[in-house]
Amino acid sequence: MTEGSKKQVILMRGIGVSSGIAIGKAYLIDTGTVEPPSYCHLDDSSVDQEIVRFKNALKESIEQLKRIKKKMEKDGKGKEHIRIIDAHLMILRDQMLINDTVKVIKEEKVNAEWALRTVLRDLMEFFERIDDEYLKQRSSDIEHIVNRVLINLTGKKHETISDIKEPSVVVAHDLAPTDTAQMVKGMVLGFLTDVGGRTSHTAIMAKSLEIPAVVGLENVTRRVKTGDTVIVDGTTGTVIINPSPSVINVYEKRKERYENYGRALHFYKDLPSETTDKRRLRLMGNIEMINEITSLLDHGAEGIGLYRTEFLYLNRKDFPTEEEHFRAYKQVADRMFPHPVIIRTLDIGVDKLPVSMEIPKETNPALGLRAIRFCLKRPDLFKTQLRAMLRASVSGNMKIMFPMISGIEELRDAKAILEEAKDDLKREGIPFDPDVEVGVMIEVPSAAIIADLIVREVDFISIGTNDLLQYSLAIDRVNEHVAYLYEPFHPAVLRIIKSVVDAAHGAGISAGVCGEMAGEPEYAIILLGFGIDQLSMNALSILRVKRLIRSVSFADARKMCDTILGFSTAKEVEGYIASRMANIYEEELWI
Ligand code: PEP
Ligand code: MG
Fold it and tell me: Which of 313, 345, 352, 441 to mutate to test the pocket of ligand 1 (most atoms within 8 A of CB)?
């Protein structure tokens, strides 16, 4: 620690997206961002040396890929993944790529980076012109592999999360869900990123892995070096680089308090989630991957309110087969039985795009061909998933949910494909639950406005506040620059949620919330007051929210909601709720 204290202490504030405190050595990861190479003219005497430098970078890239391949084989990764590495090795050994680059270095007397980029540009232009879809797809492999050589030319290190050998705080410009999926609790103590917002999927994954994380730090990758001591306070969004021993001491105590608080919450695990005047609320969990179920059950979840199935599509080049879908869904349904499990159909989005999907680049991906829109465009893929869901529904505790519904036609189209899948299964004599409940996420303002019409055609609704806020407040949920506008207390948001809950109850169906708002006590108390029936959140939040629910009466929560609906600004709502929360918990922290 003395070493850290000599270095400059840096305090940074970002967006705390996964609570808890981590203290450890930083490990900077370059997730493959390559600066555009600068042009450098060579004199005659340096040309041969530059060719040697290029060939060494090629050799290094080949060695790296061979090492990755070996590790994959050792870890028992599928043939499909190994074939990709083989294809990349072939590209690296391709004589045309090598000879053309050497030719440009020689003839134009330019640095290897520039020459390689020139050759890559020509190759890309060539690929753009060809008609063959398969060959077109190979162009992204070439780009990827050229970037690897470019990084090796600049002397930067290629690191991935699975390379981490000792417990560290991961620091990266950005982490894709595919990166976070490789994180192992214990090795990754916490993580920090330059970009990202509160409800990005990277943030959601951090929570489900119970790893403290701060995102949206803008330039943390430039301010911290591998080996620096860092403190991550994922609750407040504070990051301290090279803290003094006395600051470390303070945070170690805080960490201990936080962990004790977590343990103390376990007292609530088997208690019913009901208010002091006996209103019961079902508290459920959100999962991305099956291995999160253990933690959900440990935290007393009474079901799964959102199973984000898109994670089945990540980290692979092909699509999951019906059997793969079925195995996953059946396992989830069985492990949670008799609790309900709401499985959401594929919801690809801007920050969780599987590599298997060749989606043309869109100017506004959050408004583009995503979620149900994509599924309706690809009924073949949609039906594969629906058939698997139906087959798994024999367990009797499964419900199917469509994401991003924006109007009735879309809902009817989706339901029609579900009916076709049912008819097919019937014809084939394959069993399923004919009464499987079908619901929708209300996360697009147009759906919220016509919620009274939608609720007539579904069995339940679940409000996706992450996207509902994104679309109704016009804030990109993954953009750190507008993260300050993510404001669940905004009177517009509160009115929308209330009207949707009222619409559902008017039709006699249940209304839930499965966005991040559900897991924060200060928002959960409002949702309770609005009469919500179920809240679905990450495992860690369940007991905090249960403690809140058991500390208040439904009657009081309703009165609070009447008061806040009279406020005109988010600040007023926030101030009022903060003072009420302080009353409820008296001297204790409620975060
Ligand atoms: C939401 O939008 O609130 C939601 C729960 O879905 P996702 O975060 O997966 O978009
Ligand atoms: Mg959503």
Answer: 441
Active site residue 40: no
The residue whose C-alpha atom lies closest to atom 6 belonging to ligand 1 is 464
Q: Which atom of ligand 1 is found nearest the CA of 310?
A: 9
- Could you identify the atom of ligand 1 that is nearest to the CA of residue 403? 6
Please, what are the domains in the chain? 10-31+159-244 (3.50.30.10), 44-154 (1.10.274.10), 274-584 (3.20.20.60)
Could you list which residues have their CB under 5 Å from ion ligand 2? 443, 464, 467
Nearest to 272 by CA among 292, 298, 302, 304: 302
Tens digits of per-residue pLDDT, 187-196?
899 999 988 8
pLDDT exceeds 50 at position 258:
yes
Structure tokens at 486: 């993510």
Q: State yes or no: is 514 an active-site residue.
A: yes
* Residue pLDDT, tens place only, 472-484: 999 988 787 888 8
Neighbours of 259 (CB within 10 A): 12
Sheet of 238-241, strand order: 10-13, 238-241, 229-233, 21-29, 168-172, 188-193, 213-215, 15-18
Measure 192 CA to ligand 1 centroid, in angstroms. 22
Atom of ligand 1 at shortest range from CA of 443: 2
Query: Probe ligand 1: pick from 310, 514, 517, max atoms within 8 Å of CB?
Result: 514
DSSP-derived pairing of the beta strands 341-344 and 304-308: parallel
Which residue bears the tokens 């301010």?
223
What burial class does residue 46 get, using C-beta atoms within 10 Å of its C-beta: 0-12 exposed, 13-18 middle, 19+ buried? middle
∠ Cα 13 191 536 (to 5°): 90
pLDDT at 566 > cutoff 80: yes
Residues in a beta bridge with 44: none
Please state which of the ranges 93-102, 157-166, 169-178, 492-501 shows the lowest mean pLDDT: 157-166
Q: Name which of 127, 129, 107, 110 is nearest 54 in CA terms.
A: 110
Is the peptide bond prior to 338 cis by the omega test (within 30 degrees of 0)? Answer: yes
